[in-house]
Amino acid sequence: MSFSIRILFFIALVLLHVFIYYILFKNITENPIIKHLGKLIVCANFLCIVAFLKLYHTHINSLYYTILSSSLGIFWISCNIALLVWLTTLCIRFGFGAFVLERMQLPMILVAWCSIIALTLWSFYLNAKEPKIVTTQIPMQGITKPLNIAVLTDMHIDVLMDKNAVAKVVERTNSILPDIILLGGDIVDNYYNIVADSVQELGKLKAKYGIYYVLGNHEYYYDTYTIIKALNKLGITTLINQTMVLRNLGLNIAGIADLAGNHTKFQDSVLIPDLAKTLAYGDKKYPTILLAHQPKVLHLLQHEDIELVVSGHTHGGQIFPFHLFVLLDQPFLSGLHTWEHYGKQTQIYVSKGVGWWGMPMRLFERREISLLQLIPN
Fold this sequence. Notes:
Strands 1-12-2-3-4-5 form a 6-stranded mixed β-sheet, with helices on one face. It is of the alpha/beta class. Helix 8 (275-279) links the parallel strand 7 (251-255) and strand 8. It contains 9 helices and 12 strands. The protein has helices at residues 3-24, 32-55, 62-96, 98-128, 163-174, 192-200, 224-233, 275-279, 323-329; strands at 132-140, 147-152, 180-183, 211-213, 237-238, 242-246, 251-255, 288-291, 308-311, 335-341, 344-350, 368-376. The model has no long low-confidence stretch (mean pLDDT 92). The protein is elongated, with a radius of gyration of 23 Å.
């Protein structure tokens, strides 16, 4: 993120916290003590966000991490509730007058705060639940036998997604007896030496025909080559603009480097995404599954014959209504879709992810292990 964008982000963060205070605290009472307490709460939340973003790539205590990161989720929920209160206030003022608004203002704010508390607790609860297994059947022409493919994306191994949490995901994934496991990027979200014990748990994943991994944008923030080397030692095949031809299954599995590799600092490295190079060594007799972290890799497709793209990155929006902002950047949020390009059709499956980014919170979305059942068509 460039310096100018960071400044704009910081200014927006300040202004939105001021907005939250003005809507949810300023008019709740005339008592100056309550108002000062409101200022203290809003300022504390702002400072927690700043501290989290500063310490995000370090090894901090899990309790501190939870408190600091959760300030982001609480801010987002509070900001949206404050926006609803403001819009409701305008409707009452112009529809029924200031006198009615004065009588309804306090009950509205109290309802708003009850909603913030309830939604915050609900989001912690949803995220704490074990990931559900989402099964999707996909007809595919050219494969020789039915295949069960487990998809794990956006695990974000870090302070909270620790060794025990990864072990539970591995155990649950192995329980569905996958033929192939695809790791769709953002698996590791810290420097390898900090999360090495947790990453080692991935070595216990079991799949009959192999485990294949592509980089996500978060792996580009750290010691990328060390992460790749560590996963390869665990028997996980990393695909960076490469294709594996599984002749016994009549299937190509291709993996493209993440779009984050287009940043200038990766210039002249192997980490730049290259679709032509990725598909160059596939066998054209067989259908191709393209593993790509971000769904918007679809914009790179021209005349290629790709039967299925498997992606993650979106987290299904993670905290509603952040879904709307995700869709400004990505063509799809989650699930199975069809993409038309130059007279061809390609299916894409977008996983909601098995982990979370930052705050251990999800609102109206569950974590998922995706099970794609490929059926010969």
